[in-house]
Amino acid sequence: MIEFKLPSLGAxxxxxxxxxxxxxxGDAVKRGQVIAVVDxxxxxxxxxxxxEGEVFELxxxxxxxxxxxxxxxxLLEAGESADTARRQxxxxxxxxxxxxxAPAPALGIPVAGAAPASRPRVSPAARKRAGELGLDPTAxxxxxxxxxxxxxxxxxxxxxxxxxxRGPSERTxxxxxxIAAAMSRSKREIPHYYLSETIALGEAMAWLQTRNxxxxxxxxxxxxxxxxxxxxxxxxxxxxxxGFWREGGFQPAADIHLGMAIALRQGGLIAxxxxxxADKPLEQLMGEVTDLVQRARNGSLRSSELxxxxxxxxxxxxxxxxxxxxxxxxxxxxxxxxxxxAERPWVEDGQLCVMPCVVASLAADHRVSDGHYxxxxxxxxxxxxxxxxxx
Amino acid sequence: MDRQQxxxxxxxxxxxxxxxxxxxxxxxxxxxxxxVDLDSMDWLRFLGALHRRLGVNIPESDYHKLDSLDALxxxxxxxxx
Lengths: 391, 81
Prior knowledge:
The structure holds two protein chains of two kinds. Chain A has helices at 82-88, 124-133, 151-159, 168-189, 202-213, 223-237, 282-298, 303-307, 371-385, and strands at residues 2-5, 15-21, 28-29, 33-39, 44-49, 53-58, 64-67, 71-76, 102-103, 192-200, 243-246, 249-252, 258-260, 262-263, 269-270, 273-274, 301-302, 311-315, 334-338, 342-348, 351-365. By secondary structure, chain A is α+β, with helices and mostly antiparallel strands. Chain A folds into two domains: 2-173, CATH 2.40.50.100; 192-390, Chloramphenicol acetyltransferase-like domain (Chloramphenicol Acetyltransferase). Chain B is an all-alpha fold. Classes of the chains: A alpha+beta, B mainly alpha. The interface between A and B is medium-sized, with 21 and 19 residues. Chain B: This is Acyl carrier protein. Chain B: Residues 4-80 form the Carrier domain.
């Protein structure tokens, strides 16, 4: 019997509210399958299961708010049957304390009517619209088949003053709290040091301009993608910046998954991971960045994306600032920031010229690396950006 | 398609990118990306949507002509077939 626990959703997310199940008892579950949708202070997250098995029991109801690590479902392993699993149950203490399953008090869900095997209770369109409106869709009464909450139910509820549910201002407050908690922890525990370097992007921008001139908007590359790729390639040479501080020591990450700080339109930010950045061609990265930004904003990120970034990159250039010195996102040990790409006076071969430049910054953890190492890393980023074709 | 219809379609695409946008509150002579808070990714998605919907492929070299919603409409009009 496999006990499926609510996985980590990032350092600043220690609990989640179940919005809907995507599985029912008896279903076969494959590795990586999305089995549930959980709401957090920042966004709705699709929870993936990394084990294979047959769903035996769903242990919590939609509407329940549980801490990370709580068992929420049990699966039968290959060769197990429901009967053998049931016989095992009494001998498996871990399966018994079904966690602090306290249905969120404000939700008013008719628990008696909601069998664990009920179909997904909120339609995707309804959930998306509810998110935009800051409504809690699970608090509504569904008028669709099997009591499914439909888009119309959400629209109707938005017209009526809703006594329950999380309003936009409450949601913003909850998000500010989670960000504050993670950033306070970072500043308290991580001895940061900061470096910055102005990098000439003449070659890179000229190469991009030529490339993009031939393409439709859908095929164009943004300069930010080149910056991400350069950071990932440089991390291969400087592994002490790519990993996690855990249990009093540094653990290098096996892969280079870059967290991308994404501003949410309703305020706040989230930094989901772009996977294996160093191994992917620019076109593929561009597609994945576009997809990640869209999913971050409409609330369909996956649980793995919120917990496995090994270094975060923040690009605030669009807001017009010259540079950004970030706060490291624990348990990571470094953060790279880029400001606006702007033309500046520059000296090359003894000649004054006009050059597009970007200020790259590094905030890194002194427990793991020193300024000398960090400076060489930024130097490598600079070197890589002078050869855009090789990115 | 008259100017009013074109404007409607452009606004619809903008709203897909920025759902919180209130078209009545948008000042159409102000810098569009500031008015709607579009970052470079939003902007590219918006141009992609216009390309798909209207068949107009706006090159990067023309971005500077699209400073406001009015300017964008004026740019698009002669390009429509």
